[in-house]
Specification:
The protein has 205 residues and is mainly β. 0% of the residues lie in helices and 31% in strands. The strands form four sheets. A six-stranded mixed beta sheet has the order 5-6-7-8-9-10, with no helix packed on it. A two-stranded antiparallel ribbon has the order 1-2. A two-stranded parallel sheet has the order 3-4.
């Protein structure tokens, strides 16, 4: 272990955090990875907490994150500059009765420089809405294109079904995706929509 004059510490080896202090003789390497956390799944002992340490956390403030990167090029000083990151933001001014948060996912694109901000691609809001390429999804799933690059027929959602309904060569061979709308109270189907593509039969029969 190295302790530097600026207070930084550097440790060579694996780290096991065992809150139970009981250890586990079946695995002397503490999970066989660089960092292992053992817990009992109880309150105060069930994972890792990343906490913003101030008394003025406001709507939109970064609560913390995890970054993934390499030592080829500079290793970023911010998780928001990592090759890929997961981060959390306050969804409101925080207080005793106000703890709303958003979870975001982002990456750097090919040829992005080091030490530059990565791109947020997906956000799960405090309301449970999921936005792809939008920070303010207006529905349970909101997919938007915010870049006008002249492409008019852009694929924004792709649904793939490996099953072709056992179509024979002389059938029309439908390939379909079904959407069911169900009544939340009774579970009975109240509507169904189908998107289908068909291939013409081979001639001559």
């Amino acid at each position: 272990m190295e302790i530097h004059t600026n207070g930084d510490m550097q440790y060579s080896g694996k780290v096991l955090i065992d809150a139970s202090k009981g250890g586990y003789t079946g695995n002397s390497y503490g999970g066989a990875n660089s960092l292992a956390v053992w817990h009992s799944a109880g309150d105060g002992d069930n994972g890792i907490m990343i906490t913003r340490a101030d008394q003025t956390t406001a709507d939109g403030d970064l609560l913390g994150g995890i970054g993934f990167d390499s030592t080829d090029g500079y290793s970023p000083s911010s998780v928001l500059e990592a090759s890929a990151f997961i981060a959390a933001y306050a969804a409101e001014d925080h207080g005793v009765g106000d703890k709303g948060g958003d979870l975001v996912f982002g990456t750097s694109t090919i040829n992005d420089d080091d030490d530059t901000a990565s791109h947020e691609w997906m956000r799960i809001t405090d309301a449970g809405n999921v936005g792809i390429r939008t920070t303010a999804p207006a529905a349970y799933l909101d997919i938007r294109n915010t870049t006008d690059d002249g492409t008019t027929n852009r694929t924004m959602l792709r649904l793939h079904n490996d099953r072709s309904d056992d179509a024979e060569v002389n059938d029309w061979g439908p390939i379909s995706i079904d959407f069911d709308v169900e009544n939340a109270s009774g579970g009975a189907k109240t509507g169904q929509a189908r998107i289908s593509a068909v291939s013409a039969p081979t001639f001559p029969f």
